[in-house]
What we know:
Blueprint (H helix, E strand, L loop, with lengths): L22 H17 L5 E4 L2 H8 L5 H4 L5 E5 L6 E4 L3 H8 L8 E3 L14 H15 L7 E3 L4 H9 L4 E3 L1 H8 L4 H24 L6 H15 L3 E9 L20 E10 L2 E2 L2 E7 L4 H18 L8 H6 L20 E4 L6 E5 L16 E9 L6 E11 L2 E4 L9 E3 L3
Parallel strand pairs: 1-5, 3-4, 5-6, 10-16
Antiparallel strand pairs: 1-2, 2-3, 7-8, 8-9, 8-10, 11-12, 11-13, 13-14, 14-15
Helix pairs in contact: 1-7, 8-9
Amino acid sequence: MADVRPLPSPGHMGVDYEERVDFDRLRSYRLGRAKAALESSGCGAFLLFDFYNIRYTTQTWIGGALGDKMTRYALLTRTADDPWLWDFGSAVRHHQLYSNWLPDENCRPGMLGMRGAVAPSAGLMESAVREIKGLLEDAGLADSPIGMDIVEPPFLFEMQKQGLKVVDCQQLMLDAREIKSSDEIMLLNQAAAMVDGVYQDIVEVLKPGIRANEMVGLGSKRLYEMGSDQVEAINAISGERCNPHPHNFTDRIIRPGDQAFFDIIHSFNGYRTCYYRTFSVGSATQSQHDAYTRAREWMDASINMIRPGVGTDQVAAVWPKATEFGFENELAAFGLQFGHGLGLGLHERPIISRLNSMTESIELKEGMVFALETYCPASDGFSAARIEEEVVVTARGPQILTKFPAQELFVANKY
Length: 415
């Protein structure tokens, strides 16, 4: 019987002596999945504004500062091999020079208003829709429904004014993105390996006197040094701020005996992490140990459920009900006992929780990658444990991408 080898995280460089990420293969896979979603939809085209969907179909990216302003958009049609991309200013010339999988004529400048900063009355949306409609008319698709993922209301109104029928395609694009290729999994694993290293840096400096925002700065610096292309967030929560979980960091000073947890969210070549770890500073109380043990038990119970064919309702069922850990209902506790898909986006399919999975379960499939999160408040009333593991669904069961030790409460710089 062959050995079961770990999923590879071979490094950032392409080399001639072993196979690593094949970006041509990655681009072909993603565009192929998007085209298959379009073919199954009954739509003539997809018009995409979600910047993860744009990257998935066009293989281009210009960063969050401009990428999330609803100015970039892409058109994928049934009749053309390649998508059209409208992008911000000089990024278009850059794509024409360096993104050579797209025909030059398919890369066009676009500007719609930057979330309303330029009013719709300026006519930018009207001319953009006219251009899109012209392409659809040339392809014989203007009378077919046009799928859109997310949209500003004035743009939707302009589409309707010019006689185009708009339907939702976000569900179809999320379905397309849910099964990860070997190249995607390798990039997700590499992103997790970078966070493994950051946690080693964190536990070495997690001592009384350091501030939470300093820890965020340290983690961000190390991630960018290791090749991260975006540090989206680092939650640094400690002491009395652990319970209830505030989901944001401050300048709080770390103190002796604090329980502290961190969530590191970044991307490598677009592929994201969501990776919590909990530590105690110098020493830990029995209450803190007990909370961590329960959070770990809930985590292990959910990991043990992960295999193809299992429903997300079955996974969510092994987690405690909201009322069992201090919340009035599942909506109030959402995000604490939680699972979410990982890929180009932070929250992809499947979303696993008692809030939604019990009424609309999704079957787990080989190639899904998601994060599982548990949270347990401590009996002292203010400490809490937070654990997160990133999981790949394989035919052999779950494979874990997140490697920093988490089976027991880690006491940093023990006295």
